[in-house]
Amino acid sequence: MSTTVEPVTGRIHSWDLSTGVDGPGTRFVLFLSGCPLRCLYCANPDTWHMRDGKPATVDEVMAEIAKYRAFLTTAGGGVTLTGGEALLQPAFTASVLRRCKELGLHTALDTSGFLGARASDALLADTDLVLLDIKSFDVRTYRRLTGGDLAPTLDFATRLDRSGKRVWIRYVLVPGWTDDEDAVEGLAGFLSGLGCVERVDILPFHKLGAHKYEALGVPFPLRDTPAPDTALVDRVRGQFRGHGLVAH
């Protein structure tokens, strides 16, 4: 008796090609739909709900990625899965990562770590680089800023360190929210104790996604928050470097 295997299907928002911001080289960046957090500075509110994404099978996604295989390899790049939150769809994410490795492509997972417990060992084995977004090191600020808890992200970071996984930290710098000196100092101290962290990218807050909130009819919570000035960015970057971390 034959058995029919159902194709692994996910919900995706879109895909794009990028250089320099989503991992090394030029990347095929796959944006998955759905996210458990509601970060006040989120630039992609149109990725919040899985129901808004387009259904796609792993085969369909891989057919698109395969078109760029030679280019991505020549450009020293690969494939990055992001969102939304890619770990909200762990089976789909794991399947895409596995298939990318079968094509010989470098893989990266961009995640908040909030759902890190959903990442199986097999999924991580097929992930060459984790881009870990740590929103704040202050528990109360993290809750107010994202609606979630900090602990799962720190647990995931520790797990990545134990497994020897390469990690780039992404830290969005928002004046009045993530610029507290003590909180930055605490995060820098935590990260300096993890041998897996290769670099920390300071990402200045911006409002490039404000028009998406307008289109959705949703208020942008930080519309009156200014972008950080150069002095603030330099101070925070210096704090991370003061702990021996490579910070950009």
From TrEMBL:
It catalyses: glycyl-[formate C-acetyltransferase] + reduced [flavodoxin] + S-adenosyl-L-methionine = glycin-2-yl radical-[formate C-acetyltransferase] + semiquinone [flavodoxin] + 5'-deoxyadenosine + L-methionine + H(+). It comes from the Bacteria. Its EC number is 1.97.1.4. InterPro entries: Aldolase_TIM, Organic_radical-activating, Organic_radical_activase, PFL1_activating, Radical_activat_CS, rSAM, rSAM_sf. It holds the Pfam family Radical_SAM. SUPFAM superfamilies: Radical SAM enzymes. It is found in: Cytoplasm. It is an enzyme of class 1 (oxidoreductase). Belongs to the organic radical-activating enzymes family. Activation of pyruvate formate-lyase under anaerobic conditions by generation of an organic free radical, using S-adenosylmethionine and reduced flavodoxin as cosubstrates to produce 5'-deoxy-adenosine. This is Pyruvate formate-lyase-activating enzyme.
